[in-house]
Design brief:
Elements (H helix, E strand, L loop, with lengths): L14 H4 L15 E5 L5 H10 L5 E5 L11 H17 L4 E4 L2 H14 L4 E3 L5 H7 L4 E5 L2 H4 L2 H10 L4 E5 L4 H6 L6 H16 L4 E4 L8 H8 L4 E3 L2 H14 L12 E5 L3 H12 L5 E3 L22
Parallel strand pairs: 1-2, 1-3, 2-9, 3-4, 5-6, 5-7, 7-8, 9-10
Helix pairs in contact: 2-11, 3-4, 9-10
Length: 311
């Protein structure tokens, strides 16, 4: 796993001007694939809903498992990684990018939209607004990563929608790594979740927000722990609906009736992604290894999209 870089090791180049993809709206076609990116397997929870609502779409899924977890990393690092993954997906013909990662959305979505102005991005946000509308006790719990909880985007959601609501937060240290390892219902995962939710339940929380795309995979265990009467909110279905709306609005939706496909890439161990995908998607998916070299990703075989290169 590639170690995090200190601020002194980061490039001093202005990222906004450095990323200049050679792609325009004219290069995007309805028969192009959706690009979906995440730090690991978490985005598969979004992919499940994308495939249900958009069964005709071809999908490219990129799991940046070589850099997982994103949660403790500085925003600048996440911007570098997600920009390069975006370029990679564009080189493979992606017509829209779903940032299926709460941490990456919080750290990089605004930057990506500025750096790639001709590309539509759909991101993830903790479902603070639905939770505030749902709670009866006026107390909500948010399970998310440190980067998400400390982000300006999350602070903005709190300011707009959580007035009069008491929100209890937990960064769930170690939970992403357990999920990546496939430990969805183990004593260790149970113990971690019990430590996280016990103080929230003691304070009268009646609504829990899954603020990381990895967390829906432990939802059955979580609901077993918290019991009846607690609402758990997963924003993934709403993100899939938003993606469908944007595709239709931009006239980029695939023709209905054609067969959707899935192509998976990982910067980590392909066997790990394949095993997890088979477990949660209930269909085989061959993962292709793509290795980072000095913060650059090589083009995988079969790239057909417009060039989206560094200057």
């Amino acid at each position: 796993m590639k170690p995090a870089l200190s601020d002194s090791q980061r490039p001093t180049t202005d990222l906004t001007t450095a990323v200049q993809p050679a792609i325009s709206a004219r290069s995007l076609f309805p028969d192009g694939p959706l690009g979906v990116l995440d730090s690991g397997v978490g985005g598969l929870s979004v992919l499940i809903h994308l495939r249900r609502q958009l069964p005709s779409e071809r999908v490219l899924y990129f799991a940046d498992q070589g850099h997982i977890p994103y949660g403790p990393r500085p925003a600048g690092e996440i911007q570098i990684y997600t920009a390069e993954i975006t370029r990679f997906l564009l080189r493979h013909g992606a017509k829209l990018i779903v940032v299926a990662c709460n941490t990456a959305t919080a750290a990089a979505l605004d930057f990506l939209r500025s750096a790639f102005p001709d590309i539509q991005f759909v991101g993830m946000e903790p479902a603070v607004k639905p939770a505030a509308l749902t709670t009866r006790s006026g107390k909500v719990g948010v399970l998310a990563t440190p980067s998400t909880l400390n982000s300006h985007r999350y602070a903005g959601l709190m300011a707009r929608f959580a007035n009069g609501i008491r929100v209890l937060e937990d960064p769930c240290p170690g939970l992403v790594q357990l999920i990546e390892a496939g430990a969805l219902d183990t004593p260790e995962t149970r113990a971690l979740l019990e430590r996280v939710v016990a103080p929230m339940l003691a304070e009268g929380v009646d609504t829990l927000v899954l603020g990381c795309t990895h967390y829906p995979f432990i939802r059955p265990l979580l609901e077993e722990i918290i019991g009846d009467g607690i609402t758990v909110i997963d924003p993934a279905p709403a993100v899939a609906r938003r993606t469908r709306f944007v595709l239709q609005q931009q006239r980029l939706a695939a023709l209905e009736g054609q067969e959707g496909t899935l192509r998976c890439f990982t910067s980590g161990d392909p066997r790990q992604l394949e095993a997890f995908a088979a477990q949660v998607l209930h269909t085989p998916c061959t993962a292709e290894a793509v290795q980072w070299h000095n913060d650059i990703l090589p083009t995988a075989p079969g790239a057909t999209g417009s060039s989206a290169t560094r200057p």
